[in-house]
Amino acid sequence: MYYDGKEFLKPFIESFDRMGRENVGKRGLVLPNMEDMVRLENEIMALFFPGLSGGEDSDELISTIHYHYDNVAKLLQDAIFLALTYEDKGKSNKESIEKMTKDALDKLFKALPSIRFMLKLDAKAALDGDPAAKNLHEVILSYPSMKALSIHRVSHFLYASGIPLIPRMLNEIMHRETGIDIHPGAEIGKSFFIDHGTGTVIGETTVIGDNVKLYQGVTLGALSFPKNSCGNLIKGAKRHPTLEDGVTVYANATILGDVRIGKNSIIGSSAWISEDIPRDSLVYNKRAEVKIRPIRRED
């Protein structure tokens, strides 16, 4: 049996107009491709760490860098152009958006050396902070936090530069692959390490200082969402924690709201925090009573 069902197609198409999208099919509604974003993530990793795809001797290294540089440039150029076009919604001409795209790419590629320097410090922090880590190459090749931070530091730069769509798309792909959920708006300092990483959540307005270490399952989230007089959420307000330099947060701790965790403080596992913590503090839950009894076995 062949099912036609064409009589339902017309009302489905009309639903787009009812959502106020009268310019369906026009330039303003073309979106970046998610498959291209996956390719872009892989190319970014290979650009920062050419050893992932070869490049042992100097000549091969240079050619490998050129190859991935060109791929990142092409994928980003197409994606940023589409994102800016979508955001513009047909107000500007193509040449104007092409110039904005080039300016954004120029800024990013100029910043690549400093971003890579930050990633090297992140890798060193992982090596120094994890007794199970044998060497830097093991960290770069296998630690989920390295991929998460490599993508986040690029995404954050694009986010801070006002590029729409692309930063969030990249970070959500990274989230699926690593289990680490970092909003591209989060500001992260030098030598950052997330041990294990699974289930870690870092919100949009989080600020993290230098030499900070998190464990799996940590949430740096919002306690409440500020609203205006009409009851609508106020976008962009500071609503996530600030972690000062040298803070360590152990597994499954939850820190909510615009609170400040003071320098060199240690937050114990499963702690729930919604207030400021002074510097050099140790925060932990009172240990629950543990009872041990023999297992009763029946014949």
Number of helices: 7
Shape: globular
Helix content: 40-55%
CATH topology of the largest domain: serine acetyltransferase, domain 1
Q: Extract low-pLDDT stretches.
A: 21-28
Q: How does this model look, in words?
A:
- With 299 residues, the protein is α/β, with parallel strands linked by helices.
- The chain folds into two domains: 25-179, serine acetyltransferase, domain 1 (Orthogonal Bundle), CATH 1.10.3130.10; 186-285, UDP N-Acetylglucosamine Acyltransferase, domain 1.
- It has helices spanning 9-18, 34-48, 58-88, 94-129, 136-142, 144-160, 166-178; strands at 181-182, 187-188, 193-194, 201-202, 207-208, 213-214, 219-221, 242-243, 248-249, 254-256, 260-261, 266-267, 272-273, 282-283.
- Helix 2 packs antiparallel against helix 3 and helix 4 (94-129) packs antiparallel against helix 6.
- The protein starts with 8 loop residues before the first helix and ends in a 16-residue tail after the last strand.
- Mean pLDDT is 90; it is low at 21-28.
